[in-house]
Amino acid sequence: MKVIINADDFGLTKGVVDGIIEAHKNGVVDSTTMMMNGCSVPYAVEQAKLHPDLKVGIHLVLTWGRPLLKEGVSSLINKEGEFRLNSAFSGKEPPDKNEVYNEWKQQIEAFIETGLKLHHIDSHHHIHSWDEVKDAAITLAKEYNVPLRYADSLSEHQEILLSDTLYTDFYGETIYNDLFDAVKVTEAGIVEVMTHPGCVDEQLKQNSSYLEFREKELEILTRIQRPEWAEKY
For the whole model, what pTM was predicted? Predict the structure, then answer.
């Protein structure tokens, strides 16, 4: 079995970047995905280049902060110019598909301009799996020839998916020490584990409700060891 331990939200704040780098240097995290509209993107790029063994993908955003495009995004934003959708996007009025594609393409192009190699694509709050916008994610994965994070709604596109399944239970109240034992039960050929390690800083307190659990994740991810059966991807 191959196990990918991915840390989401790279670039959100300096504390999150520091936590992810620590979880990579002294823990089991082997990949991360960057939010190109995050508060600490330049710092994240700098740290990624200092740690070339860390695979870096993009964390496409449609539910936090502001778009990178300044025009042609009216269906994506509220009157304050921020993304109008949030983690409870299901059931909301969907945005224009072309605007989604254009904004996400801009985010990917901004990533490429950093000089980092794009490893894979996923999204903040899993919005790339939403039926109303998933076609844009599929198109971009094919266009840039990189794999896309697994979701049930994308299962018939296995040829472009990063893994056979996504393990999401290492989060919040369901964080626990026996992570690899739980992952092994899935019996999938390739498993991606979603994690969110980080150090809580003032900027994070202003931009996320997921706080102390990030530090708990960091503590566990730097303490446990990858077993022999859990091959790196």
Answer: 0.96
